[in-house]
Amino acid sequence: MTVPTGLRLTALAVLSGLVLAACISGGDDPGTEGGDDTITIGISLPLTGDFAEPGKGVQQGYEAWAAYTNANGGLLGRNVELTILDDQSSADRVAADYEKLINDDGVDLVFGPFSTRLVIPAAQVAQDYGFLFVEPAGAAPEVFAQGFDNLFYAAPAVADDHYDHLADAIEAMPAAERPTTAAYAAMDDPFAMGTAYGLKARLEAMGVTTVADEVYPPNTTDFSSIAAKIANSDADIMVGGTQYQDAVNLILALQQLNYQPRMTAFSTAPTNPEFPQAIGDKTEGILSPTGYTPEAAYPSNQEFVEFYTEEYGTAPGEDQANAWTTGQVVAAAVEAVECAEPEPECQQQLIDWLRDNEVETVVGPLSWDAEGRPQGAHLIQQYVDGRIRIVLPADQAEAELILDKPVW
Amino acid sequence: MSLFVQSLVLGILLGGLYALLAAGLTLYFGVMRVVMIAHSAFLILAAYLAWVFARETGLDPLFSMVATVPLFFVLGVAIQRLLIARLRPATLTMMSVLLTFSIALVIEGLLGYVFTGTQRRIQLPYGGADIEVAGVNVAVVKLIAFGLAALSLLALYLVLTRTRFGQALRATIQHPEAARLVGIDTERTAGYGFGIGLATAAVGGTALALDSTIYPSMHWHWIGPLMAIIVVGGLGSIPGAAIAAMLLGMGQALLQIPLSTTWAQTIFYVALFVTLMVRPQGFFGGRLAQRF
């Protein structure tokens, strides 16, 4: 097929004209969005794909926070507006999303996405543009090893510090009454191992001898042999760095061998509502760290639980709470330095303020080290009279800590 | 010393469970040269049915077998007649991997859809109970699972050696053409053989549910070790699978003492590699694997 040269030239000219027009109209986009009466906040979340479940939880938390803030006079007297994009749980997309939010949409602030895998690329983009980056999820050590100076993790503690209140309580016991031997079992997973080994380091520093230390792969289904080694060690305290099914199977296997530790603690599993249904009436005295519980008595938490329950009909979970916390942290900085602009000077002021100050949140007062690690610890819960209750720290306790676990 | 004896006992109990779970798998291969990837998915399905039964009726989950064993037998016959019999004999073994892989995915997906991905466990009044014999603790649930395994394997053995159907099934395993020549309807026999294999999954799944936390994707953790067991035992040989299961179960429990859990689990794959290198037809079984 032959096309007359004149026609080709015309087509080329028309095309160039269109491209030029697109460039010009694209250029003035940021100016039209987010006028002076609103603060726009850009967020990318995994609303589909692997992390869709927790991603939606975080979205609910963010949206509830925005609704609550607007109902209470907004931020700096301006309404808050969220721009939420779906990154499909992909690390490539999350970076592109934050580029778009900052460059094309011209958002005033950004909030973090969900999960370590997505937090790192997103934080990198925010760092490149000098944006403050407060994130609701991403507790793994590598998040804090990237050299970000704009990142803050909006939760009480990194994995290693989850058991700090329990370690403090054991340290406070008279030396003669402290456990003298300890057994550890941890899933081969950075989070689960981090919790158990954080307590291990503290106990060893107190002179508690490690008599069993087992690490198992996540696909382990038979725990009888691990239980046999722990039972044989007859340790005073048994610590599990666990998720869910591994803790349940291990506890049953330990009971089957009639091993009776004086204290026992497992991460994650005991706070799951399924747990007492699986273990039955033998939960009494089992300890667990928890990042969030609606029962916590922090002042803003009661308002949060009330508002959230009214909006959604159920009490908030940890994902919702961490998202809300992110909002609280950024809001505290914005109110303190009285700016919420995308310009680097304003963002730097926000970062500097958070570096030096403590913020009251629904998960307790938060402050951070230079890499953005929160300096708190998790609440410690324990099954007391068949219900899971906060026992540590003392000022938050709903029930008294049981030091000598009843027979299970 | 006490740890050694305790681990040995745990290993024997574990080996018994492995033997039951692997028995069906080796039977499918023996009868039809079918590699049944979905076997462990059916185990989990039976475990879920036991859990639902216990939750809804409040009765002991063991009673669920009254329904699940016949149901799985019929299901097995149906799968063989409607799906596997349609595969071309020349590529049967290979294509059966794909077909049963897809069945496993369907079961996993349906379990997730109906029961959600939440991890479940049957709460038994005797779940944590144990009997102490000479300083060794034997869990009641593990003893029941072991007893179920022993009974089912004995029943399977008697059916195969003492009944006319068993003779026909063994003839089909040993030489299908010759079996047809002496008048055995090998097609129908194969269907029933598959049904029996799946019926063992109903028993095995119930035994598994007594002492495990179950979730839809759990079957992927089981299929590897079970495949290793039937290759080491000799494909198609039920006594071979039982012996291999017992040895590997004990090996796993005992290796746990000096090594970590991660390394103790590799015994299945080490045994698999050694078998394929040294004696590909399996250590205890017949000559079937040579045709594989």
Describe what is shown at a glance.
The complex is a heterodimer of chains A (408) and B (292). Chain A is of the alpha/beta class.
Q: Major beta sheet of chain A, specifics?
A: 7 strands, mixed
Structural class of chain A: alpha/beta
DSSP summary, beta strand count of chain A: 14
Helix content of chain A: 40-55%
The outline of chain B comes out as globular
- What is the total number of structural domains of chain A? 2
Number of helices of chain B: 12
Distance between the termini of chain A: 86 Å
Oligomer: heterodimer
What sequence of helices (H) and strands (E) makes up the elements of chain A?
A: HHEHEHEHEEHEHEHEHEHEHHHEEEE
Give me the number of helical elements of chain A.
13
Sheet with most strands of chain B: 2 strands, antiparallel
> How are strands sequenced across the largest beta sheet of chain B?
1-2
Name the CATH class of chain B: Mainly Alpha
Shape of chain A: elongated
What does it look like?
The complex is a heterodimer of chains A (408) and B (292). Helices cover 42% and strands 17% of the residues of chain A. Chain A has 408 residues and is an alpha/beta fold. Chain A has 2 domains: 33-157 and 297-366, 3-Layer(aba) Sandwich (Rossmann fold), CATH 3.40.50.2300; 161-290 and 379-396, Response regulator (Rossmann fold), CATH 3.40.50. In chain A, strands 7-6-8-9-10-13-14 form a 7-stranded mixed sheet, sandwiched between helices. In chain A, α3 packs across α12. In chain A, 49% of the residues are buried. The model of chain A is unreliable at 20-34 (pLDDT under 50). In chain B, α2 crosses α8 (186-210). Chain B is mostly helical and 292 residues long. Chain B is globular and about 60 Å long. The relative contact order of chain B is 0.21. Chain B has a two-stranded antiparallel ribbon. Chain B has a single domain, classed as ABC transporter involved in vitamin B12 uptake, BtuC. Chain A binds chain B through residues 188, 214-217, 219-222, 224-226, 228-229, 231-232, 244-245, 248-249, 252-253, 255-258, 274, 277-280, 282, 408, and chain B through 2-3, 6-7, 10-11, 13-14, 118-121, 123, 125, 127-130, 132, 137, 139-142, 211-213, 215, 218, 220-222, 252-253, 256-257, 260-262, 264-265.
